[in-house]
């Protein structure tokens, strides 16, 4: 009782699973919807990604290169 610093640890900032998940989306050609920080939404498939951005391929529209820090969230559709 009363011991300082013992107990709960801070959750890790990253699980290092992002690349694995994105690679799975690419392989499955899974359609996703990206909501950006400015609340714009874009739907398509991720064809390529690296540490900084994803390339979203959209049918009948130009491809988009979106910086990851501009993505609020992504859902599979």
Give your account of this protein's structure.
It is elongated and about 60 Å long. The relative contact order is 0.20. 14% of the residues lie in helices and 39% in strands. It has a single domain (18-76), classed as SH3 type barrels (Roll), CATH 2.30.30. It is mainly beta and 77 residues long. A hairpin with a 3-residue loop joins strand 2 (41-49) and strand 3 (53-57).
Strand content: 35-45%
Q: What is the CATH T-level topology? A: SH3 type barrels
Examine the secondary-structure arrangement and name the CATH architecture. Answer: Roll
| Average pLDDT rating | 91
Features of the shown structure:
single chain, 77 residues, mainly beta, SH3 type barrels, five-stranded antiparallel β-sheet
Secondary structure elements and their pairing?
Elements: H1 18-28, E1 31-36, E2 41-49, E3 53-57, E4 64-67, E5 71-76
Briefly summarize what is shown.
Helices cover 14% and strands 39% of the residues. It has 77 residues and is mainly β.
């Amino acid at each position: 009782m009363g011991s300082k610093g013992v107990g709960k640890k801070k959750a890790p900032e990253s699980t290092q699973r992002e690349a694995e998940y994105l690679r799975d989306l690419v392989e499955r050609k899974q359609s996703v919807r990206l909501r950006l920080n400015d609340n714009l939404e874009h739907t398509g498939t991720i064809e390529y990604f690296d540490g900084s951005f994803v390339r979203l391929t959209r049918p009948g529209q130009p491809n988009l290169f979106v910086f990851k820090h501009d993505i609020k969230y992504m859902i599979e559709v």
